[in-house]
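Notebook, student rotation project (T.W.).
Task set for the rotation: take a protein with a known small-molecule partner, predict the structure of the complex, and write up what can be learned from the model alone. Partner molecule chosen: flavin-adenine dinucleotide. Sequence and SMILES entered below by T.W., checked by me.
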Amino acid sequence: MQSRLHWHCHFMQKLEDEPAIERANMWRAADGLREGEFSQQRFDAWARGQTGYPLVDACMRSLLATGWLTFRMRALLVSFASYSLWLHWRPTGLHLARQFLDFEPGIHWSQLQMQSGTTGINTLRIYNPDKQAIEQDPRGVFIRRWLPELAGLPGQYVHRPWTMPTGVQQAAGCLIGRDYPEPIVDHAAALREAKARFAILRHDPAARDQARSVAQRHGSRRDRRGAMQQDPIRQELASGKKPRRGRRPVDDSQRTFSFLADEPQAGGERPESTD
Ligand SMILES: Cc1cc2nc3c(=O)[nH]c(=O)nc-3n(C[C@H](O)[C@H](O)[C@H](O)COP(=O)(O)OP(=O)(O)OC[C@H]3O[C@@H](n4cnc5c(N)ncnc54)[C@H](O)[C@@H]3O)c2cc1C
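Predicted structure of the complex:
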């Protein structure tokens, strides 16, 4: 709980430090990436829970009904909107903000940008909606609860209803394209396209320089062993010198917060994740 509260304040502090996070890409190299390609039709389908991807739709409809969602499922909704549908994070973030009972701008906009690849310093976290559905809701309990049109589907089709043969659709009382939509995009193709666009940016030297300055401002101060890079006593210890007299060794429990471990090194990147 304590580490969560630190995390909460850490993200609020980011917005205090840089209020533009609410509206502009932290990584300015990402400007223009999605801005000119907004599709109202895709946005509406996502915002109503009608994308044809059951877990994404169940999450959205559950959120619309209750005002709350777990961290992973918020991330899934944003990842799907930002990568699969290639929607800019600002309109999708506004829609989510209006639904969340716990809306907190500092956490929210930082997370929106992290889950959309526009911080420049975080791993591209692209969630596969089918894989997530099978892993997070193996028996389709959550999906059936929030998508009543899929309640009668046999278990093997509940995560991928578009693969149902016509006879099964009729028997289940759910015709794809009438009672529940076809997938709005081909997720695998959309993902390839999204990765290719980000790869171009990530190899651009000017974009890398911009990412470095984001890392300097917002990234972790820890080195690869977890020590604080700017801690003078750590630096003395690392250089082999004895700590100066009168200065006590650092108590890590007071100086480091576990939530920082979730952020990459300044200037560093973790491998891409597609879980
Ligand atoms: C796209 C996206 C948007 C989000 N928007 C918000 C938001 O508007 N408001 C909000 O409070 N949380 C937001 N979160 C973080 C997180 O999803 C929620 O805090 C979490 O779902 C709350 O669950 P809980 O009450 O069980 O908290 P616990 O996990 O038990 O944590 C207790 C408290 O710690 C804080 N906390 C938990 N996770 C985080 C986190 N990742 N970052 C910062 N603080 C955290 C919250 O204040 C939370 O109430 C967002 C996450 C994502 C991926």
